[in-house]
Amino acid sequence: MNDSIVTRKRIELNQAMVSKRLRLRLSRTGGLSAGWHPFRGVTFNTQHGFRVSKTRKGLTLGVQSGRLVFRGRWNLGKFFRLNLSKTMGFSLSWKNELGALNLTRPQYSSAKLFGIQVRGKRAHSLQMYYLLFRLIVWACQATVLLIIWMFIITIRIQQALAIIAFFSGQAFHLLVDWFVYLGRVAGVIISALIEYVWLELRVLLFVAWQFLKLGIVKMFSTPSNKPAPSADIGKSALKRPSQKPKVAGTTTNPDTKTTNSKKSSIDVTSGMSASQLQTAFKETLRLDIRVYHGRRIAKSNMTLGALSNNNFQDTTFKVSGRSKVKSVEDSFKKVFGVTIQILDVNGNLAGNNLSIAKSRKS
């Protein structure tokens, strides 16, 4: 038997030794291996071991090296194929000159471009461009065939009416009237077809251009060699960083010694925890507060973003000694969806109409 070079996922060379039952195979990926087929359905291979299989009506059942072999291939017409796999189940693919487009699992599509085999997402992108090109070609072919058939039918009808008019003694008048009517109808049909074809081509060209702009750069870009981030890194990246209260004026560090600069207001952010908020009120405004999570006292390590029922980006607002107690509590409820209570110097609830500064003196 002559040598056969097959290009699929790999480049391989098959050579029959002595007879068709004994074959030697050299593959780029698999290396050198030998196979012996004593009879149909039984194979001994130096690389894959012993295999027994039976194929009937496209369904293959067998055992290879202790593993069950179960797959199916059925052709549905000229272009489609139904596939069955033990692990993936059923899938439907479209066969074409470029390769195969898997309609149910696009990531298993394949394509061959300039002799290079491509699989996966890149193959799916190439197949989608090829399908769009084929749709444009099919639309043009269908339009041309429709115009040709319209002309043929018109000519046949014209010939039949001419024969009928000739034998009825009114050939001349009928032919004149028919040609006038036929010219009008043909003009309307041709103008409508031309307008329809032009509109269809413009739409298809616009869609093709959008596909090219969105996908061609991504398809041919070199994949990054960086490893995928671990689950722990992904979780830490999603966590909202804990933010310390911002104090107007000079920025302070809780680990350093306090200075003599007097703080008069605090900036409340969504990243502050309940304990940080209480500390900021105590140190800056010299008042205690209670932070609630629903009807219960909130845990000290929970941030305002975690306590909030509202969907908001990173929000900040200022609380100073001039702010009204009621206004501050309502602002927390409105902005963060969190309930707080401000206490006066005696540990009682501060009056709603009093300011923060007056609550310290009561």
Annotate the secondary structure layout.
Blueprint: E1 4-7, E2 11-16, E3 22-27, E4 31-39, E5 42-45, E6 49-56, E7 59-64, E8 67-76, E9 80-85, E10 89-95, E11 99-102, E12 110-113, E13 116-119, H1 121-168, H2 171-220, H3 231-238, E14 246-247, E15 265-269, H4 274-285, E16 289-293, E17 296-297, H5 304-307, E18 316-320, H6 325-335, E19 339-342, H7 356-361
Antiparallel strand pairs: 1-2, 2-3, 3-4, 4-5, 5-6, 6-7, 7-8, 8-9, 9-10, 10-11, 11-12, 12-13, 14-15, 15-18, 16-17, 16-19
Question: Can you give a write-up of this model?
Answer:
It is flat and about 120 Å long. The chain has 362 residues and is α+β, with helices and mostly antiparallel strands. The N terminus is likely disordered. The relative contact order is 0.05. Strand 12 and strand 13 form a beta hairpin.
Name the beta content range.
Answer: 25-35%
- Provide the residue-averaged pLDDT: 76
Question: How does the major sheet shape up?
Answer: 13 strands, antiparallel
Name the poorly predicted regions: 1-12, 226-261
The helical percent reads 25-40%
Radius of gyration: 40 Å
Query: What order do the strands of the largest sheet run in, or round the barrel if closed?
Result: 1-2-3-4-5-6-7-8-9-10-11-12-13
Secondary-structure element string: EEEEEEEEEEEEEHHHEEHEEHEHEH
Kindly summarize this structure in a few lines:
Helix 1 runs antiparallel to helix 2. The N and C termini lie far apart (107 Å). Strand 11 and strand 12 form a beta hairpin.
